[in-house]
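Input/output pair, single chain:
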Amino acid sequence: MNTIGQRIFYYRKKRGLTQKEFAKRLAVCPQTVSKWENDRSLPDLTTIARIATLLSITCDALILGEND
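Output:
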């Protein structure tokens, strides 16, 4: 997994969350999650921290791919 989007997709699927469920928990629209996962945009730093918490991973794992 080379990109943040690929890691978001991987860890979201690993937790058994749909894009819609994931988006709802982050208070964003599902299209936003799709854009992240397809590397068409990136979440801001505050959102990255919220994503990491929701997925029970570190920000380093999400940003840098540590522990892939």
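The chain is about 65% helix and 0% strand. The chain has a mean pLDDT of 94.
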